[in-house]
Amino acid sequence: MKPVVAIVGRANVGKSTLFNRLAGGRHAIVEDTPGVTRDRLYRDASWLDKDFTVIDTGGIEFNKAEGVIEAKVKEQAALAIEEADVILFVVDSRSGFTSDDEEVAAILRRSKKPVVLGVNKVDNFQDTSAVYDFYALGLGEPIPFSAIHGMNTGDLLDAVIAHFPTGSEEDVEGDRLMIALVGRPNVGKSSLINAITGQTAALVSDFAGTTTDPVYKAMEVHPIGPCVFIDTAGFDDTGELGQMRVKRTQEVLQKTDIAVIVLSGNDFTFEKDWYQKLKNKKIPVLFLINKADQFNNIEAFVRAAEEQFGQKPLIVSAKTGQGIAQIRHELAALVPQSFETDSITKSLVQPQDTVLLVMPQDIQAPKGRLILPQVQTIRDLLDNRCIVISTTTDTLDTAISALKEPPSLIITDSQVFGAVYEKKPPESRLTSFSVLFAKYKGDISEYIKGANAIDTLKDGDRVLIAEACTHAPLSEDIGRVKIPRMLRKRIGENLKIDIVAGTDFPEDLSGYSLIIHCGGCMFNRRFILSRIERAKEQSVPITNYGIAIAKFTGILDKIDY
């Protein structure tokens, strides 16, 4: 598993702003009102060569009468602390040292976990005198930073990753089945996720609107397998904050493989609207009636629901456990046949084939490990009973000479397509990791069409480059530096290029002449396909890194996929 970093602190110190910055987008709702974040939120992040999971928690308050929600927020924060490898304790330089900060610090010291103390909202880094008071917390050196401006967050992250355990394995959401629970506020979605997963994954209270952001929980659930349950906010929320919750739920549908609609009441207006949205996206739906223990005439409710949706809902109770096992089996039966493809390389190889992997170990190669597409491809080739040989670009000639026969297939990093093509034996087929993932995660025919649209670009056009990863920019980053350089060299220096990362992706694509997307190894296939569909709907060509580079290199018609 990736290292886990929990962001904790009292309310309104900027935890969600920092969370959004680390996660590369607006994942948590940010308001000036304390208490907006209530559940703990999970997202992937990276710094330098370290990938990790970051958790946002609700603000911990001590000096006011504690209600049910406040107690639940504390409980969620405590669970995050227990789960974390490193705790990022955020305090506020503007309000200064408070008794609540001291109380939180006492909890963190008792946890025996590594703690990094970050002092947020520092506007003047020439005068950090306001930071000194926080030495009194006894948690080491306070690190000043500004989450909203991104200033000094690098020093903060350097301190965080210094505490990471060694030898952690990657656990990627991108290959997990995504299951979203939707429904009105207070129908028991969070309770159901807790019951299905057997964990306290989401905050539960009797007050409507407790869930403010989608909550993601990665699990292994029999007989479903690896999956991510998504607890969404209630979809009939009103007001500005309520509309933000609805928008977040709509965004979730872009990556949802299976949806669970939790029914309540006899008015199905909202449920019918959302069911239509799901049908339009061809997302399979399971209907549930939760809180079976509270119904007087549940049979009549079941009949009414069946008449409206043409599907008999399951009767369950998260409280008593009724029907929970059946939910798991029904979800397993709804797994789409199109969920991922069965193999990354199967169409290109036969058992006993020799496959040569060319993997440059340059500045973009993380020290001490391989990038995820390389790892997944190697495992896939082994599953297909191939003989796998790995080399770097500078030893390619030696590797080929050492083989008794030319390799059946050469898989390379896209950025050295041209060099590898020049050196490969004529009988060896050639592809790249990015090209393979173009087919595995997306729609390769659409990507080929998009790459050919490069020929129609004009100087002054606008191009969008979209990355799934949120890593810190590198000096020769393929998406941020190399592809823009190739584009401008071919089209002209006045070409306009926008770059987005993580889940950021414009709703309106009409201003773009081309979209170039990364391989998408961090996203599930549904999410990538939803972006391709959005581009098609707005008549904007879309391609991916590997296909685009093959086009630039002049070998697009000579690669295999």
What does this structure look like?
The protein is of the alpha/beta class and about 550 residues long. It folds into four domains: about 5-160, Rossmann fold (3-Layer(aba) Sandwich), CATH 3.40.50; about 175-335, 3-Layer(aba) Sandwich (Rossmann fold); about 355-435, Rossmann fold (3-Layer(aba) Sandwich), CATH 3.40.50; about 440-560, Rossmann fold (3-Layer(aba) Sandwich). It is built from 17 helices and 20 strands. The protein has helices at about 15-25, 70-85, 100-110, 155-160, 190-195, 240-250, 270-280, 300-310, 325-335, 370-385, 395-400, 415-425, 435-440, 445-450, 480-490, 525-535, 545-555; strands at about 5-10, 40-45, 50-55, 85-90, 115-120, 145, 175-185, 215-220, 225-230, 260-265, 285-290, 315, 355-360, 385-390, 410, 430, 460-465, 495-500, 515, 540-545. It has a six-stranded mixed sheet with strand order 2-3-1-4-5-6, with helices on both faces. Strands 8-9-7-10-11-12 form a six-stranded mixed sheet, sandwiched between helices. Helix 16 (about 525-535) links the parallel strand 19 (about 515) and strand 20 (about 540-545). Helix 15 runs parallel beside helix 17. The longest helix has 16 residues, at about 70-85.
